[in-house]
């Protein structure tokens, strides 16, 4: 028995640690839909870390409940608990301070050029939504100027593709308990493998 423990003990311990990490801390998730384009694409496979401290602009996985059904969504944290979040003609202001959203630059530029008609050539509904939009980021009623007060213990989550994303603008803020973890790494497709910053 001692010989077995000496030979196989470290391997068994390592295997146990790997399995526990995989089950409870490093969880694989898949992007479903286009709400995080172009940062993340539909079908991207990611690693979510359940123990990460959530900060502004992190990309997170959250449980969204609608009509009694819960599904996991991938969104970006825009508003932290207690924040006042405002948009005016695509300019974000948080607690009275203007904040740059560099991750939106590509799509905002394309929106200014042709209202994303070429980008959305794969989906007629997306083209219609973009054609009707007065700005890249509007509220659920299409207003380009809106303000949200994020309640304590809640987070305001938006998708990077604001035209097509269903997020806190429609479903409301997310409780801390609804946030499963932060996306840290993309492992598929192999051409885009790497850390998510």
Give a structural overview.
The structure is a single chain. This protein is of the alpha+beta class. It has one domain (2-195): Umud Fragment, subunit A (Ribbon). The protein is 23% helix and 33% strand. The protein has helices at residues 2-24, 105-114, 124-132, 168-171; strands at residues 26-30, 45-49, 59-66, 69-79, 84-88, 91-94, 97-99, 145-149, 154-158, 174-175, 179-188, 194-195. Strands 1, 2, 3, 4, 9, 10, 11 and 12 form an eight-stranded antiparallel β-sheet that branches. Strands 7-6-5-8 form a four-stranded antiparallel β-sheet, with no helix packed on it. The relative contact order is 0.21. Its main location: membrane.
Number of domains: 1
Number of helices: 4
From the 3D structure, determine the CATH topology. Answer: Umud Fragment, subunit A
Instruction: Give the strand content.
Output: 25-35%
**CATH second-level architecture:** Ribbon
- Regions with little confidence, pLDDT below 50 for 5+ residues: 16-24
Span between N and C termini?
48 Å
Principal-axis shape equals globular
The count of β-strands is: 12
Query: Could you give a short account of the major beta sheet?
Result: 8 strands, antiparallel
CATH class: Mainly Beta
Helix fraction bin: 10-25%
Q: Give the C-alpha Rg.
A: 20 Å
Secondary structural class: alpha+beta
Give the H and E element order: HEEEEEEEHHEEHEEE
Please, what is the average pLDDT?
89
- Regarding quaternary structure, what we see is single chain
CATH homologous superfamily heading:
Umud Fragment, subunit A
């Amino acid at each position: 028995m001692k010989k077995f423990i000496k030979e196989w003990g470290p391997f068994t311990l390592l295997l146990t640690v790997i399995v526990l990490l995989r089950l409870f801390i490093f969880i694989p998730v898949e992007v479903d839909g286009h709400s995080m384009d172009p940062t993340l694409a539909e079908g991207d496979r990611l690693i979510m870390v359940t123990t990460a401290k959530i900060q502004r602009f992190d990309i997170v996985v959250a449980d969204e409940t609608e009509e009694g059904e819960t599904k996991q969504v991938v969104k970006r944290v825009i508003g932290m608990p207690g924040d006042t979040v405002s948009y005016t003609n695509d300019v974000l202001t948080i607690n009275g301070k203007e904040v740059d959203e560099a991750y939106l630059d590509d799509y905002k530029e394309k929106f200014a050029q042709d209202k994303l008609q070429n980008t959305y050539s794969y989906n007629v509904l997306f083209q219609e939504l973009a054609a009707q939009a007065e700005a890249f980021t509007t509220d659920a009623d299409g207003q380009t100027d809106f303000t949200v007060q994020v309640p304590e213990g809640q987070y305001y989550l938006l998708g990077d593709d604001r035209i097509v994303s269903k997020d806190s603008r429609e479903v409301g803020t997310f409780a801390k308990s609804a946030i499963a973890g932060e996306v840290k790494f993309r492992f598929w497709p192999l051409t885009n493998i790497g850390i998510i910053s």
